[in-house]
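User: quick one, fold this
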Amino acid sequence: MLTESSVLLWTVIILLAAYFGAVTWVGKKGRAHSQSMAGFATARGKVSPWLVGASFATSYASANLFIGVPGLAYEYGTAVLWYTLGCFGVSWVGLLLFAKTFWRYGKKFGRVSTLPEWLGKRYNSKALQVLVSLLILFNVYYIVGQNVGLATIFETVIGIPYLWGIIIGVAITIVYIGLGGAFAQMITDGIQGILMAITSILIVVSFLWTVGGGLNVFGVLTDRLHAIDPNLTAAVANGGPYNSALAIMAVQFMLFSFILMPHLMNKVLSLENEEDLAPFTLSAGLVLCIISTLMVLGGLAARVLFPSLQSADSAIPMYVIEAFPSIIAAIMIVGIISAILSSTDSLYLGVTTSIGNDLYRVVAPFFASKKISEKDLENQSLKVAKWSLIGVGLLSLYLSLERPDSLAFLIQFSYSAIISGIIAPITLGYFWNKANNYGAIASLITGASLYVLFTTQELIGNIFIAMFISSATAFAVMGIVSLVTSHTTQQDLVLKKSS
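Assistant:
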């Protein structure tokens, strides 16, 4: 651990203090843009589309790509590359296909601030908007995954107890998101993206002196992995989540669908003009390419250097300490911490804005003794969103107290449940004019419920296959229910493609 060197320990502490100070300052600067619900949720038009694209990529990455997936690579070998390569290629293709139509719908509906609100307006259904906002609460488990990743870094590298690592991460994120909302989140994520890209590149460059072999470094790495266990170099692993061709195909489906996650699609809603989509998608693709395809290789190299780690999730921090001089290692550790925070802040923003905008704002008028003016409702929903930061933070802290067996599995469970529920309503809402609110609600309930049932009751062992089957069933249910109920609703909101 870094605690073996007092100089190195204090270097990390000073860098972290400076980093936390900087993001808090950005949060204060963003206060002017977070005085309305729309400003707090999206900061529409206030941030450069290039920076919004980088924010999309860094929010996508999270502790999963910097800690969890390298941990799976450490455990299961090169078969995990199917996941990390798909993160850039398949997910970026999904972004290119979905972003323009999603933005155009948002423009057509007016000033839409969240994905639940987008779906609610697409299907003219407040009930659907509320149900999607409740489904988004699964992201609390995603936040828990980030807390665990951050605490693992603090514990492994600096020696800070696990609990205090969680408390520090939760506290600092709540402060700057509460102050600056989406503006602070996207600005800080842009800065974090630069640190993450540098860290990822340095990991691969270090193979030249840790693995050896010169230009044949990857051949040497493969040979050394094969010597430990031939299964570590197999295209399809004998165990784990990448143990069949069907599982690998399901992974690609999940990665294609992942860009529909609410905390990611909100970035599209932050763009003011359609012309901003080009720099946004280009920036997102470039940053995502670097940070998604390089870090997992560090997990493979760590297996060669430390073949018997007690926790696979500690592979990357241990590798960084071993591979680099003290000062560079300290900078890279801060880069990894920023990777975790870049997704955590986006998730907090997504959950809390949904609580304020899609739960309170929709439900409150039904329970009020007298009519609430639009201005008062706006102010109240913003207060609810900001105060719910504390509640969500405390809940995630409580759920983080017991360390999960696998960080990657916990995170993938949370977002797969959400995707299983929303993928059919979003996708069919684009292309099928018979898609209606009855079908969307039935699809959401079916997809999410099936996924939770399959995984919690261990009816399907592979979480990716469980998501694929749940999503496919959701598509079928939405198609059938929409056709059966088509006579009860008149909806033809499909956007015509411009020539």
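User: anything notable?
Assistant: Residues 158 and 302 are 19 Å apart (CA to CA).
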